[in-house]
Fold these 4 entries.
Entry 1:
Amino acid sequence: MADETHEGGTLPDGTLPGGERSGGTHNTVSGQARVGAVVQAQQIGELHQHIQAAPPPEAEPPYQLPPAIRLFVARQAEQERIRGAAESRPGERGPRVVTLVGMAGIGKTALSFEVGRALSDRFPDGVLYVDLDDYRRDGAVELADVHAELLTGLGVAPEWLKRSPAGRQKQYWSRTNGKRLLVVIDNAGSDTEVELLIPSSPGSMAIVAGHGALQQPPGADSVEVPVQPLAEEDAVRLLRRLVDDERPAAEPEAVLELARGCGGLPAALHVAGRWAHKYRRRSLSRLVAELTAELRERGIPIVEAVWDAAYDGLGLEAARLYRVLPQFPAPAVTAAAATALLGAGPLAAEEALEELERAGLLEYRPEGFRMHDLLRGHAERRSRQADPEGTERTAARRRLVRWYRRQAARADLLAAGSRMTFAELEAALPDVPDVEFAGTNGKAAALRWLEAHRLALYGCVRSAYDSGWFVDAAALCEPLWTHFLDHPHYADVIEAFGTGIAAADRLEDRRLMVRMRCQLARPLWEQELFGDAAEQLRQAMGTADGLGDDPKDRKLKASAVEFRGLLKLAQHDWAGAAVDFELSRSEHQAIDNAYGVLLQTYQLGKAALGAGDHTRAAELFEEAHQAARHQERERMIARTGFELGRALRRLGRTDEASALMRAALVAARERGSSTEEVRVLKELARLADDLGDPAEARRQRAEARLLTERSGGLADS
């Protein structure tokens, strides 16, 4: 069934997902339930007064830059130019944009961080940071997902994010309008990427670190700041700080030669300085001579020789981890993931990471350890030299994929409960501990873990497929479905499920072919790619015809029919949707799947309501509501009760509708879902209109509008 995987997921027509606990809200139209509804109404009134009297505290403005580093030097001219742009009056056409232009490894990111920290007090509404390389797929950036990250930083909950790219763009402009924000955009590849990420307010500013020369975005006060290699005196000053002993003062010529050899690249100077610091008993002249010998013998640049020297000084485990780190498919690696790559236990991995950081070969950020792209290339070269056949790389990648497959499945089971899946739980890896999700809020912890590791999870799907591990590629997609329902990163999920389908095809696994084509259809239709979604479902239905007659196969067939009905529902084809939901319900009845019958009855009610057959809708929702109460499915109790109330209102049965609506409002507030609360408030406003109480209708709409604004939604949300 399309919805069984996560009862709280947003439905295609925006239907109320319901609350965690009903707390006495099992309302029917019976007399006993009417008494309960009076109590509910009293609770609503008290709760409403409390909310009105105590508005939520102001959230702290976002601040997303990493901590300052002690060893940042020079760049005074560049900093002054950026500060000048910040201090100048905003132009008439739009916000200010500063573009940092220079070669890789020149220090653009560090400069943007340094200036961003210094200017943060000028932007009281917050400082945001986004690395576009985190969202780059085959050279293109999925801007809808970038907007989602920026909006989340601005306090917009995932449930309030618009589904379409155009909707998220408008939401970003709306959320940044009138604000004084600083947005740091790293690794921009084109002026188009930048233009669509600039805040809408003239009082805001963007600092952009580009891959190359970028055209100035239209409608903004633009300043281009070239970033050159460090001057010799600044490079020497950085080396003196890094080495931090008496040798630089005693051997100034050696320091100067080393600085010149690094070409003024901070990425190289940091490694060279830390390497020299490590061998503090050797003279700098001797160390530089060793590098020069490497240069002459092998014909490599001194920068490469510096990195080779740092690598050669590593311990066995740190060197091995350095070689396999490029196999990690995301920008930042955690200690747990590094443990899987290394396969030598947590302590060995932690010590290896610390050694690589001390050597300047890794940089620590709050989200994990990052490797500069230049160093990633060096690590790949050293890996090929040490392991021409790729055995070590393959083993590390295999451990990583297996570990992520197991952890994601465990997180999914905790977050979504038992549902229709086909992959076996991967066995635990020796010396690689499982993630701990236990606790009073284990479900929330599991969902947070899936979101925090999403880039690695999606990357592992592609890595597994490219390695020929088709079972793993398909298995990794199953928990990503749960993640998608709460965090709709469309580009990632469409690519991942497309890869999962390819893996299922290679495996000739009909069940997986059907399931994943259905699941791929949903993000497609939510992006209004209805034709593509229909094609996926057409192929899924064709494959489903070849399934067997055992209950699991019949359940999967019924689920595929339901997905087809949901696509029609999203396109307002009420009659076509009803046909599919009826077919699916009949199949669930035949295999005695009570929950499937309940869900399809509910879906039939939505189709009837959409078609304007309010009597039939009320009958179906009443049947589904009673079934949900019998099965003690709390979310479906709230969901069916709300829809029943909507149908009864249209039939003029306002008293019964009011009791159900107010119960739904309590459930939404108990669950803490502002989208559900707004939806109920809007329906209560319509009910007040029907009852001839315009003052109450205005009050409900005003509260819905206020809650929408506080949550970061658009006015039409």
Entry 2:
Amino acid sequence: MAFEHMNALKADAPSLLSKVAADPAAAGDSLRGLIEHSAAARELTSDPIWLLAEGTPWVGPQLNAFRVVTASTDRLLRGAVSPLIEATRQVPLETLKSPGGRLDMSVLAPLSGAAESSAAIAQSAAGAVSDIDRAPLVGRVDVAVEEADALFTRSAGALDAFSRATKLLPSMLEPGAPRTYLILVQNNAEWRSLGGISGTVIQLEWNGQSISLGQTISAAALTRLLPDAGSVLPADIESVYQSRPGRYFQNLTQIPDFTFDGPLARDMYQAATGVEADGVLSVDPVLLSYLLTATGPVTLPTGGQLDAGNAPALLMSDVYAKFSRPVDQDAYFASAASLVFGKLLSAQGSMAAMLSGLTRGVEEHRLRVWSANADEQRVIVGTPIAGDLPENDPETARVGVFLNDGTGSKMSYYLKPTVDIAWSGCPVRSEDARPDLTITLSIASDAPADAATSLPAYVTGNGRYGVPPGSASVVGNIYLPEGLELVAATMPDDASYETATIGTHQVVTFGALLAPQTQKTVTLLVRSTLTASRAEAWVTPTADPALDPVVEVDCVPSSPALVG
């Protein structure tokens, strides 16, 4: 009977999470039915007979795991989600639209207390599920706990993000306190570690009462205004990336750490324009397409419309066939991005859809935020929007797989990276040897076979940096935090690799040249000294929203064989 209730929860919980992330107040009807199931399942699995049975060999651990999941589910729904939904009934998110037709983030402040409490309870419930000993679990129970663990982790992350947003946004847009922010619009058609080149910078102004857009300027134009020497970078970063991220605005996000890139962007922008920004945000055309789902299409000055369906292709591919001069391409890209943000800031469209799009962008590492205000930055640090380097924790080993274009072109639009991570074996006891981690990166080019002649010269690079037109050069950097160490690497063809250290991270750098319709694979064997049983790879977000920039795998020991 408890299993039937949990099956019903499993079927409906993901849609509830999506509703809560987008608009908590609208999720109330769905929540009531789930709470009925969770309460019934908890009652059925908490009686003395069940608890006594948990002490029996083999069967006991299965029953214990099932009870912990049911109890944690009930706690998550009744203790975390339900109070937050009730709070948002009092302050509907649609009130973010002020009477003047602008966004008013101050309405989030009253939700801060409820959101913080809900996030803490969700984190505690997720921790209880994560702490389940999976070594003795078998079959369907093992799979169910793995699925529950992923769902609880996602739930806790979403509620934590909402809690931080209720603190951060009212502070960043405090009434009576003017601020200037920079929006870097990356272009994933030319890869940089955090997505793509910073093609356009939009200056966002908060005058203490309303938000408006200031100047929009291309990264190429900003670079021309910079002093020749650019910004001086730390020696360890220069050993991997040379001086380019500090000399060319387009290369800022080559360094895969937005806690470094944010202040670097502010300093470079000030050197070029004299304007000192209070914070920096980074987005990409895929995130813009998510926001267009909320705002509806925008009409472009050149004619036609930009909408959620055509934005990625139009901004990262079609524009180069439409305009042959880079200055015109930059102007088109900048105009489109400004129109989307202009419509967003004028509070057009659905607030729920807007928050849903932003939430998806955060999950896919397409939205980064840095604040020059130390108190605000403390709220940001440790969250996905911070954009800092991958770090391990006791449960999870994290690596970064970051990709950069080496062609001087827009051929990254045609490249599809696939990352696979796998443990070599999983210890049953804590004193057992730690397993190795294998990281496999495959990059495929789906550029047309005649790309050298069928694609515009600006897209192929036209051989400007020694890469044959139609081919794509990729420079990869794989970041290994402390506790993970490279043992061996297999490179494509005769390609070589180098290792360096940035902070506490070992960085493995390699190159690959891909002709149209070809694929190259890199494999790293990594030794782990960690207690982590889960691994994640953070991958450069691409132009394809179907490619998840976060790859996860669990290390689950095989259950001991049963002897009759």
Entry 3:
Amino acid sequence: MRYFILCMCSMFSILLLSGCGESAVEQNPPPPVQSDNSNYDGPAAQTEAIQQFKLSFWDNVASNDRCGACHTAGDTAPYFARNDDINLAYAAALPVVDLSDVSKSLVVTKVAGGHNCWLASDSACADTISQWLRNWASTTEAEAATITLVAPVIREPGSSKSLPEDSGLFSSSVYPLLRQHCVACHAPNAPQVQSPFFADENVSAAYQASQRLINLDSPELSRLVRRLADEFHNCWSDCANDAAVMLQAITDIADNVVVSELDPQLVPSKALRLDDGVVASSGGRFESNQIAFYQFKTGEGSIAYDTSGVEPAANLTMQGDIDWITGWGIKINQGRAQASTQSSKKLSQLMTATGEMSVEAWLIPANVSQMGPAAIVSYAGSATERNFTLGQSLYNYDFLLRRGASGADGLPAFSTADADELLQASLQHVVITHDPVKGQRIYVNGADSGVSAAPEAIRNWDDSYALMVGNEANGNRQWQGSVRMLALHNKALTAEQIGQNYAVGVGQKFYLLFSIADLIALPESYIVFEVAQFDEYSYLFNTPYVINLNGDSLPQDLNISGMAIGINGKEASIGQAWIKRQFSLAASTDLSQAQVLSEQGTIIAAERGVASDEFFLSFGQIGQFTNVRTGISVATQQITMQADQSADIGLRTFAKINASMSALTGVAQQQTAVANTYQTIRRQLPAADSIETFVSAQQMAVTQLGIAYCNAAINDDAIRNTWFAGINFNTSPDQTYTAAKKKPVFTTTARSVNAVIGLVGCLA
């Protein structure tokens, strides 16, 4: 009997979750010499704006291995890379850039689509150009990148077509044309290699590369068609006829793709795919003095790209057992990611020039037992010679810096306090700063750790070292864990700037704007969700709010109830966090600012994948439209627009978990067995309440603590008899249950109700 109860209680956690020898640094070959086109000797810039354009953008794109290969005077319009007159280049650039929302700039979207990317990753090229544009647009050091919501494409839910996973339709229609007419450039073994490789001899690889160039909903808008029809690119006969042939091939695919029919009873919003959203990570960060930046977006290959826009790019080459993480990041099991000594030299030059620096990272340490210190981020030549290192020693973050009074090893280290145990095996935002006036500081999750070092000047840095992530050059300071983002700055970030960057978060997140304009008779009205690919199998929808992009107010009261998330033409069967709630907005509510409906989030299962899954919202009621759903047995909960009534998504931290278990079971926190267990596993319990910091080790710790509390409760006669009044624990299980069938097992006290809830939760 007791064993049976303990087995149930073991699931209690469900309720609590809402020397080696030294070696030289690798010397990689230097970057290629910049081409002649970027050696400008024309007229001077006529205005400060044009000079800013030259320094931030033109100087970076004008070389012959980039835009200067084509977009020069007399070659291919627009002539924004011309080197005869910077003023004319500036005028040519203005129509293809959008400095208010750089991600929408034509120069960005073209490169993101595979046009003349100089790297192996189109997204890395696009991110780098975006940074150059932000530098061009920036006017003051205090200015931070911002997120601008823009109206999305309008899709009718259930009406969009998606390319099938199988390449069969592609191989019989579009692929023969690409293979016959485009193989001279768009293949990895072509005489003149040009990405994307949609003419690859491997049909699966070609299909993957061509998917973003095919529009099944409007085949005539497909990039493969427009390049022939509008841009006369590589036509093999007559461009109009060739475009028509390509259009027919894409139409053949579209005609054979079946569209799911939407339930006519639904009251739906318009639909979106993930890439229709505004990239949340594209703005909001303070990045004016960022000199190296890694978002780990690529997701494949052996290179993590530096997209700071500061040349040369200090790209990291991954060596050893390192995996890519879904939603951006790398997981270091063994090995390191290292930049070349030539590209790393910019760190020494730019940081010593200001005498300041910051290392900012989003990390998930694999455990709290790593010593050395284990080198998380290091600009060094060995384990004993460095310019700086961010390291880990058990529960502490360490900052080693070559400075006035230190030796070449940067010792003594500056570390967080032992007693605080700030380093935890969960997602954390960590920033180390050095200021020759204010000294050194360490911030964890946006908060100052409370420790500081006396001011000293950066001195005697060695510019022959290399930037490394995960280990030192001689391989004896291995760090294990995940890196979701890394940024290096040549200024000491202020507490406000660090808090700002912490609030932005990390990873691949989008703002999806679901249009409800036709449902509430107010143009440009949207319900916005922050959406992320949570893992390989699901999406995280979080914090919905209402906004109007025209800045209008509500003309009348608005009631929203039964809000559900739909995917691929139907409502999701699980994860409907808001379907039993009602939200009310009063007439004249200002929708120029976000009106948050809920701070709750939910997980929705993926179906076709990121490129193809289509989402929409449906409603039980919105405005004058209603849809009566059946099968809902729980009463609707009234939610008004008051922040203190919003639900939270997250975890209970270790102290709250301990207190909750004590209150639920009636076992005192000071009980010996419980207290000993808690002290043993406390550091393994959640240290932050963000759901994004959750790791499986925390669940096991909660389970262990739950078992300890349940065991203590069952061994306490008073508690046990209160929970299970009338049960004789001295009899055999069959006798006990035979007797229990004749009378209630639990008494109807408040404590016993909690016990019932606990046991039901354990069995869920």
Entry 4:
Amino acid sequence: MKKRNKTASGRKGHDATRNDAQTPPQCRIGKEMRLEDIPGGLIILFLSGKIAVCNQAGATLLGRSQEELSGMGLDELFLQAEDFPPLLEELSKGKSLEDREVCFQHTEKSEHWLRLNARPGVYEGEAAALLSIFDISSHKKTHEQLQLTREELRQTLRHHAIDLEQSREAVQALDCELSQKNCELDKATREKEGKFRALFNNSHAVMLLLDAETGEIKDANPAASEYYGYSLDELTTMTIAEINSLSPEEFREEKERAEKRQHHNSFFSHKLASGEIRRVEVFSGPVEYGETSLTYSIVHDITDRRQAEEQLLRFKRIIASTPDLIALVDRQYYNRLANDSYLKALGKPIEQVVDKPMEDVLGTDYFKNELKPYLDKAFNGEVVQKESVITTHVNTRMHLSITYHPVCNANGSIDFVSITASNITERKRHEEKLKIFSERLALATDAGKIGIWEWNAQDGSILWDKMMMHLYQTDKKKFAGTFDSWMGYIGKEDVEPLRKQLMECFEKETPFDAEFRIVWPDGEIRHVKAAALVKTQSGMSKRMIGVNWDVTTKRRLEEKLRHIATTDSLTGANNRRSFMERAHEEIARSKRYGTPLALLSLDIDLFKRVNDTYGHPVGDMVLRSLVKVCRETLRETDIFSRMGGEEFSAILPETDLDSARATAERLREAVEADMVHAGADTVRYTISIGVSILQGEKDLLDRLMRRADKALYRAKEFGRNRVEEE
């Protein structure tokens, strides 16, 4: 690194275009600034006059510890306190201070002269200024001594008429002394520069020194060499344009945005020697080196942070769009988050719900009786599930299945409780219908609508009444009245389990209770419920007397309800709840038998454009067509589900990474070839797929899904209509 000049705050860098006569823009003084990594004494001063932060070099110059300086009024350090208000007034007006000589009071109550530069800005949301200070006490004393000596010389010449030659010798001696002082100052400067060079080279932050006009890299520290993958010699032969992957127009737009924000940080995409593109945040400032204007830049890699922010945004969108009602409550019972479904159910805008007391949002009675008791249990670490009924803003009753789940922070304390409420109104209606059906069945039983049978152990005969004949769609001519003839009507899969259970109950004289399938003569399968008791009476053989009744309608209704609860109503695919249950089962099975398992996370590319162009009905057609293509492409053993919106997932049991990647490619190609005909329009669409596989015994479903989502995001980022793996 070539010799650097002091930073000249307010001077033009290669990206500054403002008039010098204007008030310089405020800088953003962020916590991310590492004051200890920046040469010289630095102070962050609130414009109230209090010191916020001081680095160690500044504390040494002021003769105090960093802890003593934190919160101290700067005016307490001025030797003459009246010098401070004018400086503070200029900073409050947004003016920068340059090369101000200020006399501070050292701990030994001695004068301590410092040169001060300051630039106003904002720190932690409060008006502040960044002050840089340099020790000029020795220079000041030398200057004062020179002034005093010269004054004495003039007085001596004036009053004592010293011989001219003696005066010349005195001046020469003084010049020698000054030369010696200058040599000492130069030595001190070189020592300071050596310290600055050490800080520059040893810093873990990536640092570059650029020509403000040409963009040439004049110097770089070892951290920059390690980060970019070039040697220091290579870097100093390059320009910043060879690293910055933005186009000149994009670069200019980003600089304009930074200037509008009045910040010294800008966001770019930098290309490493390996070809990898990384997102970076660059903090820059101008420095002067002789007649050359340079820019000092500190580069921070924010690629992972940006990805995390985008993933967080995606999660927020998922939460906002899920049909379940979601809220987050803190320990003061304030509602800190509410999704769209929650707001819709309440019929209130977000400003009347978020950051408001739950008592105000839901009413005092409901809060105290229905909400607070369960919140308190959750704050004590208990997961609470209950059902509740609320009246919506349109005066309709909504049945909810509510889960109160404690949310722990990093240290394990519970600061929030998440409330997730699923609308089970439709399920309750079906349950009510099922209840009515059960009541009707009971009435039918009371009226004799059940079949009664008797099995005689002595001769093996079985007697059936008329209802039994009706239940089995037979008659006395066709039914032989034996145990084996009865078993002939039973479904093949149920014969042996039913025979074994009957024999066991008969021998042990325990109640018999079973459900099995029978096959009617026309091939129709019916579900029959059976119950019986064993009777032994004196003088009579052991007998089993029981009843049968047809429960086919009930079972079909239960199956329908099960289908409704596990199936996405729009596409017919498994819904998220069903997917999570079955995925956990498949992962447990994979771990138990040591078989591989893969997960595909897929998303329709630019689906919003389809809806905006053709309308939501066509968008629904695209979703249904996608499900059809995926079902035709995947195996029957694969679990394919709609997770929400245009997002889908598939669990592939007994599938390794290579097979999963091949399956994902087949899916992608099949979807790319699919066409949805909507009237006169033909809609083509594509998908992006992320692939992940189960990794060992300790791997979990949420980790598996996060990896697949990360791979999906990368597929989106790399151009869509592609498969990526994680």
